[in-house]
Design a protein that fits this description.
mainly alpha
Length: 119
């Protein structure tokens, strides 16, 4: 059984009514509104919770980035001191050079690979 024009299977064969045509035929105007059942206090509370969650997420991300930057900076400084110090042993320089090279390579790759906005 096929649905007739103006009907669909999802509507359970309930005919559609075009309120615009119905109102124009009677010289009326149709005003359709959808109002939220959420009271302003609930909305404000929900928005406050969302704001606190976002602030906490930003703080966590900032903390992780800060710790990572400080760790990389510390390792870079230690390796640079070992490589440049004439009193360092060849074994120490042997492991410090590749770490320093990897750090410099990573930083250059980050700088070159970062998209620069011209806005």
């Amino acid at each position: 059984m096929a649905a007739r024009e103006g009907q669909s299977w999802q509507e359970g064969n309930i005919p559609r009514v075009d309120l615009g045509n119905l109102a124009q035929a009677r010289g009326l105007e149709v005003d359709f509104r959808v109002n939220s059942r959420e009271v302003p206090e609930e909305r404000d509370h929900r928005l406050r919770i969302m704001d606190e969650d976002a602030r906490h997420a930003r703080w966590r991300i900032s903390a992780v980035y800060t710790i990572a930057i400080l760790a990389v900076l510390g390792v870079t400084i230690v390796c640079t001191i070992i490589v440049l110090n004439p009193d360092s042993s060849p074994e120490d320089k042997a492991w410090a050079r590749p770490i320093l090279a990897a750090t410099v390579t990573g930083l250059l790759g980050f700088v070159v690979g970062t998209k620069v906005s011209t806005e």
